Amino acid sequence: MKKLELSDILDIAQYERIRHDFRKEVMELKSRRRLSIGENMTMLFECRKTVLFQIQEMMRVERIVDERAIQREIDTYNQLIPGKNELSATLFIEVSDTTKIREVMDSFIGLPQHCVYFHIGGEQIEARFDLEQSTETRVSAVQYITFSIPTTIQSELRRNEAVVEINVTHPNYVHTAVIPVGIREELVKDLLP
Q1: Is 150 a domain residue?
Q2: Residue 50 belongs to what domain range?
Q3: Residue range 159-179, pLDDT digits in tens
């Protein structure tokens, strides 16, 4: 998937003119790319348009107008755009009870260590985490992950009969979420050349 460049980004005034319709379009797209995994996790499979939206919104909120600062945002968020034979996602740890935020977040320490898998057919593909989001004593509520999907099994995504799911095997959080056909159709698009 093609990475974003400075020429793809609208300035704040241009963005304000199209924001309402663009935001609506991206929210609909995100709803087709979002997967709940148990009660405390949601995964959003990222693509070029979701990342473009994130950059435009950051520029809008933070009033970023300097081209060097915009380029830094592009460089940062381009990491979320999947490369060839990859799927990319943002994994959110969600805590609804504000009195338990620390307790729940601490229970997820160690999440990037062999705990999240993309299961397709008979294959299990381990997530690669952005290790900047966690330490040995802390885990961020937002995790950026990538799955390398071998070309030999990509066709399984197209088969409605194939079992496609996300498995989380953390000692304190074990859940499986079946990836529905609608999300699978989006992921097939991501893997196209």
Answers
A1: yes
A2: 6-191
A3: 888 889 999 999 999 999 999
